[in-house]
Amino acid sequence: MNNLKSYCDRLTEKTIMIFCSDCYSVSEVIGNDNLIIHNLFGGIVAGKNEQDMSYLRHCIEKEFVSQIVFVGHLNCQVLKHLIDDASDIKLWEEARSYIEDLAGEVVGLNFGLHDGGWYLMHRHVALQVKKLSGIPYIREKIERDKLIVTGIVIDDREPNLLEETDLDLFENLNFKLN
Ligand SMILES: [Zn+2]
């Protein structure tokens, strides 16, 4: 069965796993020696997450990490809140406009509600993996085959559900639609 715990048990090298701040499933994998757990607000790599990002850099550079796995989770209340939020909090501006664009894109593709949630999260994970991979010191490690950045989506209400993210899924979908 592909679930988060068995996925993490199969890890043989030091891995940073990036979770969204409201993902319950973190508790299932705490204690795994190969794992460094990192939280980001909404699972979003953003300039405003400066402190989080500098700790992430420390882990990547000092802990001999060979893999980063982005974990998207269904039913994310942070992303939902950002979509519904009518406040004017500047700190969230970047994250809010990102998630609005993302939701608009997925609605445009007209999936059913259930599939829509999975696609939105896979798309989110794929975009964040790309964003992270583009940060110069990370890109340099990827190019030297010292680091892999990848992503998964889990349903943390149903711990048995885990899908690996196809990083090019949406590029292929858009191609098909055009
Ligand atoms: Zn979340």
Automatic annotation (TrEMBL):
<dbReference type="Pfam" id="PF00484">
    <property type="entry name" value="Pro_CA"/>
</dbReference>
<comment type="similarity">
    <text>Belongs to the beta-class carbonic anhydrase family.</text>
</comment>
<protein>
    <recommendedName>
        <fullName>Carbonic anhydrase</fullName>
    </recommendedName>
</protein>
<dbReference type="InterPro" id="IPR036874">
    <property type="entry name" value="Carbonic_anhydrase_sf"/>
</dbReference>
<dbReference type="InterPro" id="IPR001765">
    <property type="entry name" value="Carbonic_anhydrase"/>
</dbReference>
